[in-house]
Hints:
11 helices
Amino acid sequence: MFEQLGNQLIELINQVGYIGLFIASFLENLIPPIPSEVIMPLGGYLASIGKLHIIGVILVCAIGSTLWNLPYYFLGRYFSHHKLRKFVEKYGKYVRYKPEYLDDLFHVFKKNDKKIVFLGRFLPGARWLIGLPAGSAQMDFSQFLFYTFAGTMIRSTFLVLLGYYLGQNREAIVVYLKKYDHYMLYALAIGIVLFIARRIRKNRKK
Length: 206
């Protein structure tokens, strides 16, 4: 079902250009079988053959991908630190998770929210999740929007340009980017875990 929908969205880009590109960029955060590694290079390829304009493709991809993060941000605002702490106080004991652990994580996020939101846009498989902790930690909305868009813009530019110059070999591009995403996922996940552990240890020493 999802794979068929993904193919239909890719065909939509071919047929209606920017509108299809926007819809696909918006939904790529929701539906895994339509990864941005396919959508954005395809937009770049269509720009290379004159169907679309390269600047328009980059902007539409960046805006579409950014907007999908907003519902997660506001969902996070609803599930605030206070509500999550009450939940952990009630149920955390069953999995040996203390409320203090949650407090430490929120403290780390609040001190480094801009970096985490910006770099999170390059984290495969978790880009759409960044809005949840940002909203829950009450990160300023304008800053969340700015750093989300900035990170998305850089990633969109890279993928669109890749399709623009190498679009005829887009199957090879997808294979390469999947490998890149796996390596980036491992590296960033390890880096984030080490960073948070170091910050928590420093806070406890203080």
